[in-house]
């Protein structure tokens, strides 16, 4: 499997970004759900992890976007209908926007509540906004809303991939699978 | 077509959301000086020997007292809104100076209501039972670098330990600006009970920094 993308297939680095971020997002959801039920020290620790993984996603999102712009993007098959192309484009742009927006709103929540963000206790990130309760409330609402949008768009994305695979019977899904690919 | 509509609605929502995020103004930080008020009128001089020295008390504005601890790898800062400082000091006889600081523990402010409640509660300061923390120094010493150091005792939660406090005194029109910083171990004073005795998430070391505006007092 080549490292770089071609116009027909995703390279190994693009696949690594895709699947690593998928796993990290699922992990984020799981930690956040668990943290809701925790109290005291255990909650602090869970949120510390959630924030560290979130910053990891943000850094990966930056690298992933740069890599995407530095590489060819595999094209959709010629049979793909215009409405499918538009929908694919919109959902991809949204997913990219969300892997930035989720960590950034979370980071702003932390700054607004005066709980600065570290990366696995190794170093500390600067604060994005001044501490203020109303800013925290706004960012929290936004973080939760964006998560719902993320779930919706991700489901659309999965549905699209499955349609390509099972109905259109093309390589669009297969070419993003971790160890698969097209000959 | 419904797919289009859903997609456009999500875009619009995301756009609106990101705009509101971008426009959220960073509120102007409340000047710490305005927030810090002397908690109580200064008490009578604590050291008899010092009574003859010029007496300075904390004025209403221009003072702050902060504490910084590491939580989950990030430095978190809070401050005390109410504390009172009095200094007896004469440059000609610095070693006979004295310093008394009383801190109202319930005035701890960390910019988060839940955390304020937690740290003023029984697991940390227990401000209901121990409302005041106090630093009392009845002599000053010269530091190796030539600066001044208060030789005193700090009491939090009725637990007292010796603490040498490096001081900087800057003359002002009214008196002095007293500043300094030190670090203490919170667990030495019982600040952190039960699960909070663990130091993996919340550091034992707490840095303390202060700047106090002092004015010459008649007494």
Key attributes of the depicted protein:
heterodimer, A: 183 residues, mainly alpha, two-stranded antiparallel ribbon, 2 strands, 67% helix, elongated, B: 219 residues, alpha+beta, Lipocalin, 8-stranded antiparallel barrel, 3 helices, 11 strands, 16% helix, globular, disordered N terminus
| SSE run of chain B | HHEEEEEEHEEEEE
The CATH architecture category of chain B equals Beta Barrel
Structural class of chain A: mainly alpha
User: Beta fraction of the residues of chain A?
Assistant: under 5%
Mean pLDDT of chain B: 84
Assembly level = heterodimer
Quote the distance from N terminus to C terminus of chain B.
83 Å
Low-pLDDT sequence parts of chain A: none
Query: Biggest sheet of chain B: strands, sense, closure?
Result: 8 strands, antiparallel, barrel
What does this structure look like?
The complex is a heterodimer of chains A (183) and B (219). Chain A is mostly helical and 183 residues long. Chain A has one domain (12-176). Chain A contains four helices and two strands. Chain A has a two-stranded antiparallel sheet with strand order 1-2. In chain A, strand 1 (118-119) and strand 2 form a beta hairpin. Chain A is elongated and about 55 Å long. The N and C termini of chain A lie close together (10 Å). Chain B is of the alpha+beta class and 219 residues long. Chain B has one domain (30-217): Lipid/polyisoprenoid-binding, YceI-like (Lipocalin, Beta Barrel), CATH 2.40.128. Chain B has three helices and eleven strands; from the N terminus they run H-H-E-E-E-E-E-E-H-E-E-E-E-E. In chain B, strands 1-4-5-7-8-9-10-11 form an eight-stranded antiparallel barrel. In chain B, a hairpin with a 5-residue loop joins strand 7 and strand 8. Chain B is globular. The chains are: A mainly alpha (183), B alpha+beta (219). At the A-B interface, helix 2, helix 3, strand 1, strand 2 and helix 4 of A face helix 1 and strand 3 of B.
């Amino acid at each position: 499997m080549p490292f770089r993308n071609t116009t027909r297939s995703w390279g190994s680095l693009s696949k690594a970004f895709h699947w690593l971020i998928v796993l990290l997002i699922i992990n984020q959801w799981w930690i956040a759900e668990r943290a809701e039920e925790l109290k005291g020290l255990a909650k602090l620790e869970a949120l510390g992890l959630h924030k560290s993984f979130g910053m990891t996603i943000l850094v990966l999102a930056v690298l992933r976007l740069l890599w995407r712009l530095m590489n060819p993007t595999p094209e959709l098959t010629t049979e793909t209908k215009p409405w499918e192309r538009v929908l694919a484009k919109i959902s991809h742009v949204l997913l990219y926007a969300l892997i930035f927006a989720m960590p950034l709103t979370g980071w702003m929540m932390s700054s607004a509540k005066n709980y600065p963000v570290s990366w696995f206790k190794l170093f500390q990130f600067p604060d994005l906004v001044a501490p203020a309760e109303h800013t925290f409330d706004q960012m929290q609402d936004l973080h939760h809303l964006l998560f719902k949008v993320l779930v919706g768009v991700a489901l659309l994305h999965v549905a699209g991939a499955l349609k390509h695979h099972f109905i259109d019977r093309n390589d669009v899904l297969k070419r993003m699978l971790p160890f698969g690919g097209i000959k | 077509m419904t797919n289009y509509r859903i997609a456009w609605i999500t875009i619009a929502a995301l756009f609106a959301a990101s705009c509101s995020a971008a426009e959220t103004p960073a509120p102007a930080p409340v000047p710490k000086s305005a927030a810090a008020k002397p908690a109580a009128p200064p008490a009578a001089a604590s050291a008899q020997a010092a009574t003859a020295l010029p007496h300075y008390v904390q004025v209403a504005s221009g003072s702050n007292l902060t504490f910084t601890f590491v939580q989950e790898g990030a430095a978190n800062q809070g401050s005390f809104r109410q504390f009172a400082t009095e200094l007896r000091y004469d440059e000609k006889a610095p070693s006979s100076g004295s310093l008394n600081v009383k801190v109202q523990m319930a005035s701890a402010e960390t910019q988060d209501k839940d955390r304020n409640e937690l740290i003023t509660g029984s697991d940390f300061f227990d401000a209901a039972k121990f409302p005041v923390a106090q630093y009392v120094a009845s002599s000053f010493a010269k530091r190796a670098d030539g600066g001044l150091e208060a030789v005193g005792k700090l009491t939090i939660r009725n637990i007292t330990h010796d603490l040498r406090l490096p001081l900087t005194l800057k003359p002002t029109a009214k008196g002095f600006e007293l500043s300094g910083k030190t670090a203490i171990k919170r667990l030495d004073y019982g600040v952190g009970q039960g699960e909070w005795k663990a130091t993996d998430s919340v550091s034992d070391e707490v840095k303390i920094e202060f700047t106090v505006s002092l004015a010459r007092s008649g007494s």
